[in-house]
Amino acid sequence: MSKTYTVILSDAEDKALGFVAFSQQEWIDNAVHNRCRIAIDEIVNAEIKRKLEAGETISGSKEDIVMAAAVESAAERQARIEAEFQAKVDAKNAALSQE
User: Taking the C-alpha atoms of 78, 81, 82 and 84 in order, what is their torsion angle to the nearest 10 degrees?
Assistant: First the structure.
C-alpha cells in the first residue's frame, strides 16, 4: 500500500523553490524520501537493538522490520509527553496546596 500527499505552494513559494531547485517536484520528492529513509534507519536500528537484548531473532527486510515494529508516532509521543508533564505539574500543585 502507498500513500499520496499533496503539497500546495503559493506562487512566491514555487518561485523561491525554483530558485534553489532544478525541479520543485523532484526536490520535494527527494526531501520526503530522504527523511523517510532516515526514520526507517532509526526504527530498524532501535528494533534490532531491542530484539538482540530480548534474545529474539531478526529477519526480514528493513520495510518488514518497520511494519512489524511497535512504533509510537510523533503525535502519540507528543501527547504522552504532555500528559506526563501535566501529571507532574498536577502532583506538584497538589503537594504545594497541602503545605
Answer: 160
Find all residues with CB under 8 Å of 64, minimum gap 6, and list them: none
Non-local CB neighbours of 17 within 8 Å, separated by 6+ positions: 9, 24, 27, 28
Q: What are the CA-CA distances from residue 35 to residues 8, 12, 89 (Å)? A: 19, 25, 34
3-state secondary structure of 43: helix
Q: For residue range 15-70, what is the model confidence (pLDDT) as tens digits?
A: 999 999 999 999 999 999 999 999 999 999 999 999 999 999 999 999 999 999 99
Residue 8: C-alpha distances to residues 18, 23, 34, 39 (Å): 14, 15, 20, 24
Show the cell assigned to 13: 513559494
